């Protein structure tokens, strides 16, 4: 079904090949996992299967890639799209419509299907993926995880023979990953060929038939999932891979001394077109601690973080710090946020220029130090937009760490990161404790357990509970146990 024959590719304006002499055959109906460290070439292989390389991403390519006997380098993109459905790492980049229902209809409409068949496909997809509550909504007012669900659903309505997914779980909650897992199992049962590039491996161990691991653009092993599941934690770490049997609990680290200073947020209210996204009258958190904000997709986590840093137009709440009441404008001056989609905040011509942009006083030595810790020193002269998704994420993290702000917010800082880089980010965030108040919006249990001192759980725009060092504070009428979301 899919065949790579001695394939190499250099992106334009880069010296090193992203993929080097890869030969790989994926059989019809097979489900294959592509894994490896950030920047190893996983996304490049995905782009070759769906034809985006070389038709959209320019560069120098050698070798041949074929899907169902058709050379994707020569076939028109619209021809390849009839066979291959794609879910990108950033789902925003694949949407053509504003509302979700139209997005699901877009593909079948362009295939020329009659209206009754299009409606039938949409209804079937909505029922099987359990996304009835996401229909007839503005896509750009959805959370990152909800957008990812719509991206998968728009592929499902096309009914392609081949499905390729690039980091599909990166912005999903643990509950939403279970829904995605069921979707892939359904696709597999239908006989589709599936290729998934991922860093979070645990949810794929019962889905994939094979595991292909890459390093520096080359294949280092191609084995069955049965054999892969026998690998020890030490062996997985040696390849920069996360655990196959991941611990999904989100319990904060134990601390001897919690800060006695506090920040109080008042009137954290926000709504999108009469839909209440956030309803928190008062929230008190310890100052200069690491606060993990967790909860299901659409719970209001990203909205909360944007309100805290004064980015939401029409937000009327405030924060009380050192007895002073700070409104939106003051919060904006005192905070720095790494967004879920970092492409929106990369402005400069080089990585070095990017990371020193937010410093009050430029300090290249300090910038090089942070870049080295994050494995980015060799890319200091590269254009940020020429990097992989995981590398861009680390550039944005470096910019935040070098900013001289009192409150730093990270929205999914480890999406698209391998085990090594997730650990590096966790260590750097931990180093800020006692100096900055840090909020981390995340679905990554590994990150929470490594650096968070407080876990704040949101549900339906309300704070359900907070947990610090085993002590739980309930909000509202119902008290829960600490959030340990083992699905």
Using brief descriptors, characterize the structure shown.
487 residues; 26% strand; alpha/beta; globular
Briefly, what is this?
By secondary structure, this protein is of the alpha/beta class.
Low-confidence stretches: 475-487
Tally of alpha and pi helices: 16
Rg value = 23 Å
Average pLDDT for all residues: 87
Query: Which of globular, elongated, flat, extended, rod-shaped describes the shape?
Result: globular
The strands making up the biggest β-sheet line up spatially as: 16-17-18-13-19-20-21
Q: What class do helices, strands and sheet pairing give?
A: alpha/beta
Distance between the termini: 34 Å
Strand content: 25-35%
Can you walk me through this structure?
It is a single chain. The protein is of the alpha/beta class and 487 residues long. The chain contains 16 helices and 21 strands. The protein has a seven-stranded mixed beta sheet, sandwiched between helices. Helix 4 packs parallel to helix 6, helix 13 packs across helix 14 and helix 15 packs parallel to helix 16. The longest helix is centred in the middle third of the chain and has 16 residues. The C terminus is likely disordered.
């Amino acid at each position: 079904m899919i065949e790579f024959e001695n394939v190499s590719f250099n992106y334009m304006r880069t010296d090193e090949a992203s993929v080097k002499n890869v030969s790989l055959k994926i059989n019809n109906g097979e489900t294959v996992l592509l894994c490896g460290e950030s920047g190893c070439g996983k996304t490049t292989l995905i782009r070759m299967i769906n034809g985006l390389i070389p038709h959209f991403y320019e560069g120098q390519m050698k070798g041949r890639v074929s899907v169902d006997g058709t050379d994707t380098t020569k076939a028109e993109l619209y021809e390849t799209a009839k066979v291959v459905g794609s879910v990108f790492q950033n789902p925003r980049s694949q949407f053509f419509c504003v509302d979700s229902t139209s997005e699901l209809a877009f593909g079948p409409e362009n295939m020329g299907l009659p209206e009754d068949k299009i409606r039938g496909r949409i209804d079937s997809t909505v029922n099987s993926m359990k996304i009835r509550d996401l229909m007839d909504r503005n896509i750009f007012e959805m959370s990152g995880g909800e957008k990812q669900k719509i991206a998968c659903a728009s592929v499902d309505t096309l009914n392609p023979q081949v499905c390729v997914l690039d980091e599909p779980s990166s912005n999903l909650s643990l509950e939403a990953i279970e829904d995605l897992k069921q979707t892939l199992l359904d696709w597999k049962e239908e006989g589709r060929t599936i290729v998934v590039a991922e860093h979070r491996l645990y949810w794929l161990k019962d889905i994939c038939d094979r595991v292909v691991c890459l390093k520096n653009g080359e294949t280092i092993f191609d084995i069955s999932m049965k054999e892969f599941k026998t690998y020890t934690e030490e062996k997985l770490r040696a390849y920069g891979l996360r655990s196959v049997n991941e611990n999904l609990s989100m319990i904060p680290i134990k601390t001897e001394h919690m800060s006695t200073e506090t920040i109080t947020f008042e009137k954290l209210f926000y709504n999108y077109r009469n839909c209440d996204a956030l309803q928190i009258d008062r929230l008190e958190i310890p100052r200069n601690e690491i606060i993990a904000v967790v909860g299901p997709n659409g719970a209001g986590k990203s909205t909360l973080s944007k309100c805290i840093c004064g980015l939401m137009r029409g937000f009327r709440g405030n924060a009380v710090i050192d007895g002073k009441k700070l409104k939106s404008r003051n919060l904006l001056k005192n905070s720095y946020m790494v967004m879920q989609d970092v492409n929106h905040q990369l402005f400069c011509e080089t990585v070095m220029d990017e990371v020193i942009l937010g410093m009050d006083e430029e300090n290249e030595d300090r910038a090089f130090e942070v870049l080295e810790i994050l494995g980015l020193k060799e890319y200091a002269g590269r254009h940020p937009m020429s990097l992989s998704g995981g590398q861009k994420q680390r550039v944005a993290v470096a910019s935040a760490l070098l900013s001289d702000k009192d409150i730093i917010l990270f929205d999914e800082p480890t999406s698209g990161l391998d085990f090594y880089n997730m650990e590096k980010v966790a260590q750097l965030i931990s180093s800020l404790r006692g100096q900055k108040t840090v909020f981390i919006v995340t679905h990554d249990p590994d990150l929470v357990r490594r650096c968070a001192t407080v876990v704040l759980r949101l549900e339906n725009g309300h704070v359900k509970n907070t947990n610090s060092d085993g002590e739980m504070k309930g909000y509202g009428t119902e008290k829960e146990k600490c959030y340990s979301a083992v699905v």
